[in-house]
Amino acid sequence: MRVLTRFLLSAADARQFPLPGTPEIAFLGRSNVGKSSLINSLVGSKIAKTSSTPGRTQTINFFEIRRPGKPRPDWIFADLPGYGYARVPKEVTAEWPKFIDPYLLDRPSLALCVCIIDVSVPPQKKDIELLTWLRHAERPHIVVGTKIDRLSNNQLRNNVQKLKEELLVQEVLPFSAKGTTGHDELWRKIREAAGTDASDGMAG
User: Which tens digits make up the pLDDT trace of 36-58?
Assistant: First the structure.
């Protein structure tokens, strides 16, 4: 699906968040899980900065996502800092709950949390903690598995099943940032969560 994108702002304080209104989709995941690559692949342009050094994203970065011909953005994507990476200075990570927790707990326009996990590694404690937290906060969320290109079909099937059992979820959506696997399905879930009319020029 073709969309137009625009960087909106970076926020390291709840007072810096954009005014709520447009449905927001938050992207969360451990550092180096392929979060930025997923976002860039999904929208077809390099809006999120990718780096071989984990932990580079240290603010919530907001992007406007608009379908061609639409006067206003259909969604706002929020790229959150990756969690669980020890090399990010503690004085930096100590500040994160001051703006990440208020965003995830209180943001009225947050329609969906996309929890990104690496399907090529076993279930991680930090991923389990995140999903438990989101359930407690009663935030709608889905789990998307990246780095599927590293696995055979059998390995992928086995790993996805193991992840579903460990993470206590019904579904793990496989997604390829290098190909198109999972793209249409993830867009469909975003549209559903945001209440976007699927018949309004949204096919494919």
Answer: 999 999 999 999 876 554 445 57
Task: Give the helix/strand (H/E) hosting 165.
Answer: helix 153-167
The number of beta carbons lying within 10 Å of the beta carbon of residue 199 is 7
Which segments of 76-182 does DSSP mark as H helices, in order?
90-93, 96-106, 125-137, 153-167
Contact indicator for 114, 142 with CB cutoff of 8 Å: yes
Could you read off the pLDDT of 109-137 as tens digits, one per residue?
A: 999 999 999 999 998 988 998 999 899 99
> Which residues share a beta bridge with 173?
144
DSSP tally for the chain: helices H, then strands E: 6, 7
Least confident segment among 60-69, 85-94, 177-186: 85-94
Phi and psi of 9, rounded to 5°? -170, 165
pLDDT for the residue 169: 96
What burial class does residue 136 get, using C-beta atoms within 10 Å of its C-beta: 0-12 exposed, 13-18 middle, 19+ buried? exposed
Distance (Å, whole) CA 22 – CA 75 = 6
Three-state secondary-structure class, residue 60 = strand
DSSP run (H or E) holding 7: strand 4-11
